[in-house]
Design a protein that fits this description.
With 349 residues, the protein is α/β, with parallel strands linked by helices. The protein contains eleven helices and twelve strands.
């Protein structure tokens, strides 16, 4: 593609220069012929018109050839993408098992991105999440939080160790069965062109309106949806451009809840929501029975009420416990707490 662009940039000025020089030459030599009486002015004009048409045709041919070169390169890249094999596949021993409890165990998990050099992103991670628990993961940028939760639905495979769900290695589940039981909401919410109803039912197109409204109430999205004239039939622009960041995040949470996952992963998915609304969402999520929740957050107020808090630093677990325990025993957690919380800032649930 770079070579084709350079060829266009180099060829176009040359073609224009040839056209202009041809015009100058036609006028120069034509003028000499008119002075000599061998040609008339009309013949010169006709000659220039014919010359212009020929040169423009040659210019278009050159342009088409250059576009064909670019199209060939683009086609090769598209074919390369389409023929790329997925790295994560079902193992030969994979079974169509159903996740019923949502218990998660990390056993000495280490992870390194393919072709990456240096230290692993995650090192010897071990912890357990009981069924129905809310576990928060806290840490600075680059500590490995998103990489850790991405291993659960097998967006990547562990380098060492293993991850168990309901006492079964996740590699023994078929990918379809594993990912159907896991709901993941990212910080950047992706919405599609269409109505709010269409976006919400993307996870389950056969869902009833009552269940949909219930999920939206849990995600604190119902009130702003019904404030629109068309309510759930409000048409969204591409990417949800006619919604605020917080509204898009709440819709994404509702859409994931509609899927009724056994494991819910919230990757900083309330970063654009105010603290009061965030507290309401967390309280509502606690009422969901049989759903294991993993929360990644930058704000400490987002994790204080979790059953367990895991503090990551440089890909390692440096502290683990609930809010009160960590506030007593973890200097890192204390630093995070005191840097974000001032007396009277905490929202009481």
């Amino acid at each position: 593609m770079t070579k084709a662009s350079r060829l266009i940039a180099f060829t176009m000025p040359i073609m224009m220069l040839i056209m202009n020089l041809s015009m100058v030459a036609a006028l120069w030599f034509g003028g000499l012929q008119v002075n000599a009486g061998t040609m008339t002015e009309g013949q010169i004009i006709a000659f220039i018109n014919y010359l212009t048409q020929i040169l423009f045709s040659l210019l278009m041919i050159a342009f088409i050839l250059m576009m064909a070169s670019r199209a060939k390169i683009s086609t090769e890249r598209i074919i390369e993408v389409l023929e790329t094999e997925v790295d994560i596949k079902d193992e030969e021993s994979s079974k169509d098992l159903k996740i019923t409890k949502g218990e998660i165990v990390f056993e000495n998990v280490s992870f390194r991105y393919e072709r990456a050099k240096g230290e692993p992103v995650l090192k010897n991670i071990s912890f357990k999440v009981e069924s129905g628990q809310t576990v928060a993961i806290l840490g600075g940028t680059g500590s490995g939080k998103t990489s850790l939760v991405s291993l659960i639905p097998r967006l990547y495979d562990v380098t060492d160790g293993r991850i168990l769900i309901d006492n079964i290695d996740i590699r023994e589940y078929k990918l379809d069965s594993l990912r159907k039981a896991i709901g993941m909401v990212l910080q950047k919410s992706i919405l599609f062109s269409g109505t709010i109803r269409d976006n919400l039912k993307w996870g389950n197109e056969h869902l009833s309106d009552n269940k949909m409204i219930e999920a939206c109430k849990t995600a604190c999205a119902h009130d702003f949806i019904i404030s629109f004239p068309e309510q759930y039939d409000t048409v969204l622009g591409q990417g949800g451009v006619n919604l605020s960041g917080g509204q898009k995040q709440r819709l994404s949470i509702a859409r994931t809840l509609i899927k009724e996952p056994k494991i819910l992963i919230l990757d900083d998915s309330t970063s654009a929501v105010d603290m009061e609304t965030e507290a309401k969402i967390q309280n509502a999520l606690k009422q969901i029975k049989g759903c294991t929740i993993i929360i990644i957050a930058q704000r400490i107020t987002s994790v204080m009420n979790a059953d367990k808090i895991i503090v990551l630093e440089d890909g390692e677990i440096v502290a683990e416990g609930n809010h009160e325990e960590l506030l007593k025993n973890s200097p890192i957690y204390q630093d995070i707490y005191h840097s974000q919380i001032r007396e009277g800032d905490i929202i009481n649930d």
